[in-house]
Design goal:
This protein has 140 residues and is mainly alpha-helical. It is 64% helix and 0% strand. The chain has helices at residues 3-10, 18-21, 23-32, 59-80, 84-92, 94-108, 112-132.
Length: 140
């Protein structure tokens, strides 16, 4: 690039006469100033993004989680020796609920380490299972 070309690039309005002298700059800047024709885009012809065609949905995980919570609640009721309906009824009365929770706590306290270990293994197994699933989105 010559000095005159550099001066024109820095201040085109002051050095407008340079385009008359330099054919190379005239070609470069002429191509930049050319009109760009607007073409309509056919949206149906565009490829789908990876997440638009994905069939994976999280509902089985949500339903499985809800059933897991229900199973845990039923197991706790069975371990405490009360029916689930009685537990729901006690939940409606705060004073009875406190007494029931204290009674359940005394019955289940010896099972604490076993329950903790079992829950630890279950939760970590679920996390390992979820991490091993094929990712959806960028690499799919």
């Amino acid at each position: 690039m010559k000095d005159a070309c550099q001066r024109y690039a820095e201040d085109p309005e002051t050095h407008a006469a340079h385009l008359q002298e330099c054919a190379e700059c005239r070609n470069i800047y002429g191509a930049l100033n050319a009109e760009i024709e607007a073409k309509p885009v056919n949206v149906d012809a565009l490829p789908l993004a990876p997440w638009e065609g994905a069939s994976y949905r999280a509902w089985p995980l949500v339903i499985g989680g809800a059933l897991g919570v229900l199973a845990i609640a039923l197991a706790l009721c069975a371990a405490a020796g009360i029916s689930p309906f009685l537990a729901i009824a006690m939940g409606a009365r705060p004073d009875a609920a406190r007494a029931a929770i204290a009674a359940i706590d005394e019955k289940l306290r010896p099972l604490g380490p076993v329950v903790f270990t079992a829950l630890f293994i279950v939760v970590n197994s679920i996390l390992v299972f979820l991490l091993r699933r094929a990712p959806r989105g960028i690499g799919a």
